[in-house]
Specification:
The complex is a heterodimer.
Chain A (H helix, E strand, L loop, with lengths): L1 H11 L3 H22 L3 H17 L12 H26 L26 H9 L3 H12 L4 H8 L3 H28 L1
Helix pairs in contact in A: 1-2, 2-3, 2-4, 3-4, 6-8, 7-8
Chain B lengths: L2 H14 L9 H12 L37
Classes of the chains: A mainly alpha, B mainly alpha.
Chain lengths: 189, 74
């Protein structure tokens, strides 16, 4: 805890050594968040790095009120910045659409071994989320994974609360259908 | 599968999926930070006595501690 406090203090005064330690320690956590929002691994890396630049530029805004919960609060703050960076990226992409295709299961994953209770690999489940149309994916990630409310999502994305609810409903229906399909295909093998 | 189970399943996947998180590129971050810092930065403990016609809410959070010294000039 003391070490983390020291690093945070260093980051707040733009100490490069502390920033490097901080970046290398939390890079994975932030990349995993960004990856669920983006189409390719490379985009997720770019968004993660954008997020860290924003985090470091704004570190002196981070207030420590409760030392015991410092890391949890800080992770929530960082997660929010990375998500906003992903949303910004999506907005820019909307104006200048890229031709990137959704990554296939490849080198971005470390191994194939982790099975969920449902019998599907965790990475297959994440692929199902990433195959959703972007607007459904955004709302599903924000509501189901991150726990934002519909009014919060509506504000973040500049959409109506009803649209957020409707997109979530469609995203869930999509995923349910895909899960049934995957299970049926698995059973047929 | 009901909605709660669906949520639990995907939250678990989001936490545990094995993404390759090696090779963070620190140099990129330093480059972006350095290019930003070539622009004059307002010091953290900057204190100002008045800002013409500016609403309190429009003062960035960075200056939160200095809000008390702000006064609106009419």
């Amino acid at each position: 805890l003391e070490k983390l406090l020291q690093i945070i203090t260093g980051c707040a005064v733009q100490d490069r050594k502390c920033q490097k330690i901080f970046y290398e320690h939390y890079y994975g956590t932030c990349l995993k968040v960004a990856f669920r929002y983006m189409d390719t691994y490379e985009q997720a890396v770019e968004v993660t790095n954008d997020g860290f630049v924003k985090i470091f530029r704004n570190f002196n805004r981070f207030e420590i009120r409760d030392r015991e919960r410092m890391e949890i609060v800080m992770l929530g703050w960082m997660r929010r910045i990375v998500i906003n960076a992903a949303i910004d990226y999506r907005r820019r992409e909307k104006n200048h659409p890229a031709t990137a295709e959704l990554s296939q299961i490849g080198s971005e994953y470390k191994d194939n071994s982790q099975l969920s209770d449902n019998g599907l690999l965790f990475k297959e489940l994440i692929c199902l989320i990433r195959e959703l149309p972007p607007v459904y994916r955004l709302v599903f990630n924000l509501h189901v994974i991150e726990g934002y409310s519909h009014p919060e999502i509506a504000k973040m994305l500049g959409i109506m609360v009803g649209t957020s609810k409707s997109n979530l409903f469609k995203a869930k229906a999509h995923l349910q259908q895909k899960l049934i399909f995957e299970k049926t295909a698995e059973a047929a093998l | 599968m009901n909605e709660d189970e669906l949520g639990i399943l995907f939250r678990q996947a989001a936490e545990k999926y094995p993404l390759n998180t090696e090779h963070p590129d620190w140099n990129k971050i330093v480059h972006a930070l350095d290019s930003h810092e070539s622009v004059p930065v307002v010091p953290f403990h900057f204190s100002f006595t008045c800002i013409n016609g500016m609403e309190m809410e429009s003062i960035p959070a960075l200056f939160g501690k200095n809000k008390s010294v702000l006064r609106k000039i009419k």
